[in-house]
Amino acid sequence: MIEVKDLRKGFGDVQVLKGISTTFHAGKTNLIIGQSGAGKTVFLKSLIGLHKPEGGSISFDGKINTEFSIEQKRQWRQEIGMVFQGSALFDSQTVEENVMFPLKMFTEQSYQTMLERVNFVLNRVNLEDSNDKLPAELSGGMQKRVAIARAIVMKPKYLFCDEPNSGLDPQTATVIDNLIQEITDEYQITTVINTHDMNSVMEIGEKIIFLKDGRKEWEGSSEDMFKTDNEAVVDFVYSSNLFKKVREAYLNETK
Amino acid sequence: MNYIEHVGKYFIMLKEVFKRPQKGKVFYEALFREIEELGLKSLGIIMFISFFIGGVIALQTALNLDGAFIPKSLIGFAAKRSIILEFAPTFCSIILAGKVGSYITSSIGTMKVTEQIDALDVMGINSLNYLVLPKVIATVFFYPFLIILGMCIGIFGGWLAGVFSGLFSGVDYIEGLRTDFKPFFVVYAVIKTLVFAFLISTVPSYHGYYVKGGSIAVGKASTQAVVWTTILIVIANYLLTQMLLT
Lengths: 255, 246
Fold this sequence. Notes:
The structure holds 2 protein chains of 2 kinds. By secondary structure, chain A is α/β, with parallel strands linked by helices.
């Protein structure tokens, strides 16, 4: 479980996060949505420790990350898996080397044991026979799957994804969404996803947080989202005619 | 950001770079990769340039020392001194600053803008240590050999130019090479090379690591890195000459 209390972060005179509090539970896919510039990426990067918060606290299973000792911090880092927007695969390394990298860096396992684990996670993300390919030889969807494999190879307790569907066609996006949800359920990981994709919100959003101007405007489940009368959420989520009609149909059905 | 801030940030970067590698095996793999990438792959250009520069130095010297009382062996002597003291260490280092410096900045800069460095940081890896230290060790270890090779090939190029042009004989040239040979001059050249190698690996790494923006920013950073590395090599060259030879 991740507990965020009154999180604040700014850059110079610009205050990006203005006191966000929320809780992310284990085994659930938690989605952060909001317009561009709402503070989603800064929020996510603060959660994973790439940005140092100016105020507030983030605790992982009851332990506040800013109070970690060096050893605790090292341990915590190994419990985190991150899927970046552009996949962030090491482009000079093959798929196998990319996925094996955290194992080589943080474990003393033999090459054979590491290879077994790498093949296991690559199979898990449906990427067999790609071990020797370079990231440049893969499609966007395949790169995302390698990034997911690399993120879960160390059996993390927390999985963070920044726009995992950006640049993907709807079919591939659904495959990635389902994969993330399956992994979350299977390993009981606390998953936090930053997204703009409303399909993802409807498909896998067990808990959704809507950010606006650096503040938490709304939170709830995807079902709650249909019923909400929060204007900012309705304007953002149901900005397309298709989603407007879906919402109307849902509300008529549940009347 | 002003120059003093850049200097401060550069030294803070060095503090992170010179930490114990997190995993010895991974570090050695990276080190050998960098020796190949930054060292062995520069052999060709250094040999080619040294050969022709050596030839030009010998020809220029021969053409400018045409008095009847000037011994021909002076050509070999002057070419040797010029190549060992200046052309091999400084000229070759400036060439390497262009070739290797732009490679280092663009590779690290691209990793920065594509979030590969963030990925390392999230994993708990000291990205500066992982990326820059093998480059520093590889260049500082390998470039003295490269420059000594450059000296030998330059001197050979001078001999060949003289023999083929007929401006001086091989015997005169070799006599000049043997005259007043001071081993300290080779040591001086190696000391200079060590300092230049350090600059060639760290200054472009700094420009790459702290790049902000996209591909255009990476391109600009590469240019800046080459310019600043060259400037610093020239300044260091002056200071080292002042300290070691006067």
